[in-house]
Amino acid sequence: MALICLLSSHSHLTDGFICQADCKFLIFAHHQPMIDAIHQHLLKKKVKCIRIDGQTPVAVRQNLVTDFQNKDDIKAAVLSIKAGGVGLTLTAASTVIFAELSWTPGDIIQAEDRAHRIGQVSSVNIYYLLANDTVDDIIWDVVQGKLENLGQMLDGQEKTLNVSQIETRPSPSKQKTLDTYLKRCSTSTEAQPSPKSRRF
């Protein structure tokens, strides 16, 4: 339920930008209910898309990738961060969107690299959709901390996901725990956190 609430809070982006975009895009999520909701939302908006998650047979995945790469009418790829984040070349996309974050920075970087591959001729914009005052804030800080530690160990330099904030909206009163967020989403669909999108 919480994930569906989060998708609703991001729907202004899908309605306003994605569904009318001329470019192809990748949209990553981590949880199956979120992947399901995104996929259904795009189909409802008549956005032709492919979907690759853990339930997609390996033998079928390359055919889906080929369709995405070659067919102009297929605009979106809905991908699991784990299953769709490695081993696929999706350079037809010039926009990458993360509807959810992984706790592991390597998963995020690998997923970003689906569009940053040999053969990419366009610049790629990457967006992270983070809802204010939710578990997203915690995950983002953890991911940044892990990247900083990794950078210090490897070359003595701090590494972070450098982003510029695109949009900030007022958010509800500060939430302290994940339980509070889950309870708020399950009892009210009106008091949803406002999203902010970030990009490189």
From TrEMBL:
Pfam families linked to this entry: Helicase_C
Domain of life: Eukaryota
Annotated ranges, domain Helicase C-terminal: 17-162
Organism: Triticum turgidum subsp. durum (Durum wheat)
InterPro entries: Helicase_C-like, P-loop_NTPase, SNF2/RAD54-like_C
Annotated segments matching region Disordered: 165-200
GO annotation terms (biological process): DNA repair; replication fork processing
Full protein name: Helicase C-terminal domain-containing protein
GO cellular component, one term: nuclear replication fork
Sorted UniProt keywords: ATP-binding, Helicase, Hydrolase, Nucleotide-binding
GO molecular function: ATP binding; DNA endonuclease activity; helicase activity; hydrolase activity
Biased composition (Polar residues): 165-175, 185-200
Lineage: Eukaryota, Viridiplantae, Streptophyta, Embryophyta, Tracheophyta
